[in-house]
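Reposting from the mailing list since nobody answered there.

I have sequence plus structure tokens for a pair of proteins and want to know whether others read the tokens the same way I do. The first protein:
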Amino acid sequence: MKKQIGKWLTILIPLFIGIGIIYYQFTTLTTDEIGKIKISFQKANYYYILLSLLIACFGYWSRAYRWKFALNHLGYETKFSNNFFTVCVSYLVNLTVPRSGEISRAALLKKYENVPFDKAFGTIVAERIVDLLIFFLFVCIGFISQFEKIYQFLLSKNIAIKTIITSGIVSVILFIIFIFIWIYAEWNIIVKLKKKLSGLIEGMATVYKMKDKWKYIFHSFLIWFSYLTMFYVAIFALPETSEISFDIVIMGFIFGSLAVGFSNGGLGAYPFSIALIFSLYGISNNIGIAFGWLVWTSQTILAILLGLISYVLLPVLNRNK
């Protein structure tokens, strides 16, 4: 009886959380803003939204497929279905507490594939490091190509450029010092910490040690290409955004990704980040917010649906575990 109750709670809790997230988002808007967003939703071409969601599903698939290379390197032959379903669940869980999906992903793999949590989590951390480097490449391309526009925007907001540069340099120096101490220091606390984190470190080290590292890197770029394509396709859903240039798309994608990364799935931040960056290029705030809501809502619904379906299918397809 307790197991049945637990299964139902596992299914219903994420559902109510997802509904609560969407409800909370709309309560932060004025009646006038909601009215304009409804108009945009009504005139949107949902063919492009569905195509965007299909591309997003491909990104889910590629992330799950990439994971098998790291796990195989550690000696674990996992079912692709379990990899895929745990990835889907992680997207859903990330809508509640930022980055908590990574923990649930490793925990579920431990439960259904008996992969030690620390090693599975280590491979996920390695993924995030690779993803961060690729995203940083997008940021460099976007900011270099749009430097003048961003520079003028920062000046208009009285943001000190020197402070940003100094903070960045100090952060890099501190990171290098930390890495140097971690590798070469023989302090007792460092040695003990290395032993406790040995499984995590082994998982993180899979990227440069694995036999299929180039396939892993290929899928890493493929994942981010699918994210960008997903965002690009969505601009054709609204007449007001269908003709914006690709450089604006890049900047919108960067700021939207930052909003998702630093919040629980872009909660309260994604539409307004898109509106902010679009406003630099003369796109009205209402259209920017409406477009952000259109993309965020569709992607959130997809994450909720795939996450719930995965929650249900994982125990069904792994009855013996």
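The second protein, same order (residues first, tokens after):
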Amino acid sequence: MIDLSVNRPATSAYREALALLLPHIAKDRRFSALQDYHPPEGPEWARATVADWLDGVAGDGDAGRVVLTDGAQHGLACVLRALTQPDDVVLADSITYQGISALCRSQGVDLRGVSIDREGMRPDAFEAACATLRPRAVFLVPTLHNPTTVTLSEERRRALAAIARRHNVLIIEDDVYRPLLDRAVPSFAALEPELTVHISGLSKCIAPGLRYGFVVAPRAVLGNVAAALRIDCWSISPLTALIATILLEEGTARRIIDVQREELRRRQAILRDALAAFDVQSQETSPHAWLHLPEPWRGAAFARACRQRGVGVLPADAFAVGRETLAHAVRINVGAAPSSGELRQALAIMADLLNAGHFEISGAV
């Protein structure tokens, strides 16, 4: 099985950096603090490093606005518990990161989908949803959107932010893919700092096994986010915080991200070549791509046919908000293949299935 259904790093750069770091970690001046309890928002020295890392993106270098979490998903869970009550409405793209759906169900939050186009959430649809549903918040993945790979333009961001401000709707910004961009776009946290809760982490740009996320929030809600985290686990592991802090301080994190970005660029070129005849949404440094399926294929049937031939992909159904099937597409994670050669092999299998069409579909349904 060549599993292209999950987001994982395209290189071993993190493992190599970790192997060099661990033998020396006991010499770090903060090592003695690893056996102690820490504040729920995380060790001050770790928060200060994250604040520097995000300076200009969110929080303007203020460590007092940072809460450290066990990954971005954990951060999102804490944010939802801090900001919403059961039956509150939260809006999201009609096709979006599947983790938000499970969290909203588990907390009794009413997640509603908003129509999208190839530039992201439609402002007119967002305006209408705000007017009729009176949502508490809107959840957005504005950079290298999972799964569609759309990066919202500054114009689209400003339009959505203006609507959120007009209707007093909080913006929950899941920006985990931002470090992979070649050119930065202003974050919602930069455009609307008092209306935006910014969530990010190192899973998508460095390694999911690191489990290091961060929430930057207005001070008015920050205490509730920290309280939700304290109920969960008191605080994150200080060992994780120290490893991540050293990687960030020494510039190793940036070097790992540069390596990941260049490998993703090579893999996206492979994908463009292999699927040139088909409708694929992607960007040069995105870890995934969004394949719109030609007739007669449907998402679930195509994913089953791929799996029968040893390739894993996720159909649009997994990302749909609500029960309606809104797109006939699949997400392809180019970074997940163990090698470029295996990625080519998997994409060749997919191209054969796409070209075979009705000759294959009868065996897949």
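Reply #1 (J.P.):
I read it the same way you do. The two ends are 20 Å apart (CA to CA).
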